[in-house]
Amino acid sequence: QVQLVESGGGLVQAGGSLRLSCAASGRTVSNYAMAWFRQAPGKERDFVATITGSGSSTYTYYANSVKGRSTISRDNAKNTVYLQMNSLKPEDTAVYYCAARNSMAVFTSPSRYDYWGQGTQVTVSS
Asked: Most buried by CB count within 10 Å: which residue of 54, 80, 114, 123?
């Protein structure tokens, strides 16, 4: 089993930045596909970014809504994945969830992930 704990959310003004962290425990996730999703009130859980592989074999993929403003990365020594978000907009307001799957493939559907964190709230004020 993999346990995921997100942190780093908060209240920020539009144009600001946040770095979300997802600390994994239970298993080493260096070979797992890791992803961030977000869910706003009354809306479905949407894909944000994913990272697979590590080192020179790292691959990242982003939703169009965050591409160019966000960077997903991983620190295998800390068994942690990060999401750096810049130029935040009010529409980025949501609960952000970390997810993991024991695979090297790229998945953007939440149904393909086996492990989830409890979420961290990000609120962007205008």
From this structure: 80
Question: C-alpha distances in angstroms, 108 versus 12, 18, 113, 121?
Answer: 27, 22, 9, 21
Residue 56, classed as helix, strand or coil, is: helix
| CA–CA separation, 83 and 75 (whole Å) | 12
Cβ neighbours of residue 21 closer than 8 Å, sequence gap 6 or more: 6, 7, 8, 80, 81, 82
Nearest Cα residue to 39 out of 99, 84, 102, 81: 99
Our measurement of the distance from residue 112's CA atom to the centroid of its chain's CA atoms, rounded to an integer in Å, reads 15
pLDDT tens across the length of the chain (126 residues)? 999 999 999 999 999 999 999 999 999 999 999 999 999 999 999 999 999 988 889 999 999 999 999 999 999 999 999 999 999 999 999 999 999 999 989 999 999 999 999 999 999 999
